[in-house]
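Posted in: Structural Biology > Protein-Ligand Complexes

Title: Requesting predicted complex, EPZ in pocket

I'd be grateful if someone could produce the 3D structure tokens for the following input. Sequence and ligand are given below.
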Amino acid sequence: MEKLIITGKTPLKGEVTISGAKNAAVAIIPATLLINGTCTIENLPNISDVKLYCDILKELGAKITWHSEHEVTINTTNINAHNIPLDTTRKFRASYYLLGALLGRCKYAQVGSPGGCNLGARPIDQHIKSFEALGASVDVSNGNITATAKKLKGTSIYMDVVSVGATINAMLASVLAEGTTVIDNAAKEPHIVDVANFLNTMGADIRGAGTDIIKVNGVKELKGNATYSVVPDQIEAGTFMIAAIASKGDIIVKNCITKHLESIIAKIIEVGGNVDANGDHLRVWYDKKTHKATIKTLPYPGFPTDLQPQMGVLLSISEGTSIINESIWDSRFQYTAELNKMGAHITSQGKTAVFEGVKNLTAAPVYATDLRAGAALIIAGIIANGKTEIYHLNHIDRGYENIEEKFRKLGAKIERVEE
Ligand code: EPZ
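-- Reply #1 --
Done. Output follows.
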């Protein structure tokens, strides 16, 4: 088992370049199943979820050619399987996109239930409702989800909750359907727009992505033969921005889209940090004590749940009493128990946590309970007195490319060791 050892109290200084967005990449790769031909994807993050997804496509008959760790050509002309076993799908959440993509292409998919971070209940009723509205029959039994259709027909789908996964799955299943599909109350995250842009580049006709009504005009075929570059990861950018302020540092975050970071920039400035945007670069720096804030996580353009744990670390050392209300996931405060081991004063109950700011955190052995909790603990280790050990790195490796290398370049004393 590997662990990270971080010797803390280092202000971060220097430049960091943001990788392609994980949550866009893990939707775009299965979306290639809708293409009858070849496409090239650039700016892929070098993370284990991306590798795993490409391996799954290979099993289904796709030809995968890596040009570098960030660029791959995928040929999906000869897809010859439609079943993905539970052992594979439970390794990550985004396996649910295989349902929409295979249903769209082959009118049949059998996919094991998705796994992923344990953030509480993660229902997929809105995905299933969308497939059924398009004309599919869906059966959930023995750990598998099976969707079958004679044909898929454009329709109106109203999402009862704003869901990233269900919005993307509804797009995937309707791209090749007959007629027009209207997805109402759609999610608006940058990765929704990225998947729509990718599919449109390959020959789809999707309009309105990024608003709450998406219109998909079904086309007969996606020919592909094009290259697409994945959008920068707004959550990775936000993670480094928060780390810069928490560590009393001064960094430049390169390759980011400022528009995607508005809610994060606003909160960083509200607690007393500084941000200066210049094209695709951001300077983020500390020059005075940070103070309390109230945060409610919301779908985009609200404050993202995927930055809630990282922001929790900053609030745990900010003056005053802060409150975070987590409105997306039932169980995203597991990291607070780990932070309390490091001297934080956090009380969480249900979807609310109260942070009484302390002066310092002190090192302790801690466990990454999920991906973003792991990132939060790295920030905690960088600002704490002493040597912090972080375990369960598999969660972190699923979603951050070379995270310790990137922090090390910013001056953090961080190393990965085999136990
Ligand atoms: C995506 O998960 C992300 N994962 C998550 O990223 C992120 O936390 C989440 O969106 C919210 O932004 C990927 O993109 C692979 P949802 P997803 O469907 O699609 C409820 C990370 O750290 N809901 O938008 O699974 C659900 O319970 C992570 O990178 C239903 O009720 O999230 C939740 O309360 C983890 N029924 C809310 O909607 C459904 O059918 C939003 O979930 C679907 C969702």
